Amino acid sequence: MKLNKVSDGFMPTETRHALIFCASLPSPKADEVAYLMLSSRFSLIALASLIVVFQGQSAPLATAADPPSPAAPLMRLIKSGRVPQERLGNLIELVCQRGNAADLSYLFEQAVLSDKYPRDLRIKTFNLLTATAHNRKIQPAGDLVGLTNLIAPETPKTTDAGLQLAAIRLAGACRAKSLAKPLAKIVLDNKSPLKTREAAINALVAVDPDSAKHAIDPLIAPEQSLPIRSMGVAALVELDAEAAASAAAEVLASADETQDPATLLDAFLSHKGGPDQLAAAIAGKTLAADVAKVALRHMYSVGRTDAALVSALSSSAGLSANPEPLSPEQVKALAAEVLAEGDAQRGEAVFRRADVSCMKCHSVSKAGGQVGPDLSAVGSSSPVEYLINSIMQPNQAIKEAYLTRVVVTDAGKVHQGIVVDRNDQRLILKDATSRQIEIPITDIDEEFEGESLMPQGLTKFLTHAEIVDLVRFLAELGKDGPLAVRKTPTIQRWRVLRQLPDSIAAESVDADLLREETLALGDDAWVSVYAKVAGGLPIADARKAAPAPLVYLRAEVDVTVGGEVGFEIKAPLPIQAAVDDQPLKADGRFIIELAPGRHVLNLFVDTSKSSEGDVQAELFRVKGSPAQFEVVGGQ
Hints:
Layout: H1 13-23, H2 30-39, H3 44-54, H4 72-80, H5 85-98, H6 101-112, H7 119-135, H8 148-151, H9 161-173, H10 180-187, H11 194-207, H12 209-219, H13 226-237, H14 241-253, H15 262-269, H16 274-282, H17 289-301, H18 307-317, H19 328-341, H20 344-352, H21 358-361, E1 363-364, E2 367-368, H22 378-381, H23 384-392, E3 405-409, E4 414-422, E5 426-430, E6 436-440, E7 444-449, H24 464-476, E8 493-497, H25 511-519, E9 526-530, E10 537-538, H26 539-545, E11 550-561, E12 563-570, E13 575-579, E14 582-584, E15 589-594, E16 597-606, E17 614-621, E18 628-631
Antiparallel strand pairs: 1-2, 3-4, 3-7, 4-5, 5-6, 8-9, 8-11, 10-17, 11-16, 11-18, 12-15, 12-17, 13-14, 13-16
Helix pairs in contact: 1-3, 2-3, 2-4, 5-7, 6-7, 7-9, 9-11, 10-11, 11-12, 11-13, 12-13, 13-14, 13-15, 14-16, 15-16, 16-18, 17-18, 19-23, 19-24, 20-24, 23-24
Domain Cytochrome c: 342-478
Protein name: Cytochrome c domain-containing protein
Keywords: Heme, Iron, Metal-binding
């Protein structure tokens, strides 16, 4: 080893110490050093440096049957079984970044077997292999037929939704034709969750287009529900966009305003030329005005204002396609009206409305979308005129941090979002719904600057009075009073279980049974709801997300230093509480010992007699306790 590299002042101290340590040892000790680093104080950054240093020097430890691999030392460590389980996932990630097909095959085999890796690590391994297939164009050697029983178990009751989804996506990423039959089985299984069927048809399109066409035909039949027809149309866009546009127009013409066309629209918005094709198909149909409005709202909520499609939908909705920009005089007059007549409380209700979509992009007190800026203190730093222009004319002045990029792939996919990260292998964008999109650099055909993710025409769905109240709410955020920045740790983002398992009764919640019943549920089983700026979550909002008498709410707390942590819960209705799997007496205040790590607060709210009022949960520091903690926000 060349020791002059070790003295590089720009190298992280931890890495430098690791390399000095390695330099004192003979090359065959590489595996031992890596093991020590994994099991003690050295970081994975240092380990990655170690692998580079010893690459090629430890070849004598490989067998003749092993194909050459930059990740050989890592693979020997994994196969040794000596790696602490909490570090194994990061080690697998490094192998996926550097390993060859044989390395990936070994990881695949371990993840397929239920007794090798714990459930969460199996899911993580499948997801990493999926990303590797997309970004590096490398996949496990051999057949992936081992995924069959995860995709379509012989006994449906044994289905693990999280593992099933991860397996389906891996099958599609690797274009595993041997899995076409189990994928088609799930697509046509009416008992499978919609999200699972959607993932299966998307994978089938990649795996076997002919089989996919046969599976799509019954999905788009008129007798199917709108969600199923939308799923079929979205898959057809990838195979025959013109036929898909015609089918989409039929679906929209038969829809009503209570049905969500998001899946259908997104498929065309993400396909090159798709918005124009759908616009042309819609022009020959009669859409209900409210259906067209719902479609427009969705377009605006994801930051899209494609002219032809906006024009076609606006015509059906009876709206002007593009609002006229306000003059400086009009902005000044509106600002005066906001201060004189605006109501911040009514404005918060507008801000929180799902159809306005503010919270898809923006957060308040760290809860909500993570695309636009957190608005907790926007009123204390922004003039009213600036707020009006930001809402009414968002493309007038876009801050550099929020400039979007539009990327068109060589497969004709269109992606728009803010750049999160870029390297020589992939580009990561964050779209208007906070979803991260990973695009291989080799797949990019075109790339150019886009407009603001905040759409130009969203406010045309609001009345003038609603706009006045919305601006007043924003103008008060962060100022002294009820909309000031909160200093008390308060749960602002809650997750609501859409449907409570039948085994969970309102009368007595069994924490162990609850953990078992909900463990295998994927993210799609939960929906986020947000407390108001003052900290209270309207129970009515939770009931909309989960229409059942017993509402199951959960929130997360990150503990960095263990110790006693206090909770205070206020609710106008009977509730039960638990932290992790420990039931607690919900008498308003309680104290519990928490170890470092992420913990879950579970609340069960009985709304059988009423759904009025707010639930509020605050954390407090216990005198003498060393505990350090933070409420988890986000979307």
